[in-house]
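Checklist before submission:
- one chain only
- standard amino acids only
- sequence pasted in full

Submission:
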Amino acid sequence: MRTAKTAKASKPAKSCSSSRSLRVSVFIFASLILASCARAADPVDSIIDHAVAIQTSLAHDKMDGVASNATAISTDAAALGKPGEKIVAGAMALQTARQIGEARDAFGQMSEALVAYLNGQKRKPGNTVRIAFCPMKLKPWLQKEGAIQNPYYGSEMLTCGSFRQ
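Returned file contents:
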């Protein structure tokens, strides 16, 4: 008669190959998650998102979120190293702007640097964001597709400008 001990001993051991397959599957899954997070954490995508938020505020003659978005741009642009220095300078000027006119001037400086960086990297903004241009200020900006919303003049000349790319 068999005892419980013998019954346990007679069970076949798990195969090494199924254990290895599980480890490989977990590794691949973890790698895909990390790669996805790395793309989401791209500092340029973050800079673009914050620049569009500032553009929207200025186009509506508001300073809401301008300083906090400029701070985020400054931090993200610093991660780009030397190529991001002009973006940082424009963002820092935006952080300290107290009047909407100052903010618009600083936004122009930052936008020129950001568009120059994107062009230098041969990179499009993506995510339905396009480069627009103000013929009065001779400055670019980034904004979502749709009707032009000029951040340099706001309600004074909201639709002045055109998309360049």
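Reviewer check: Helices lie at 4-9, 16-40, 43-59, 66-78, 85-96, 100-120.
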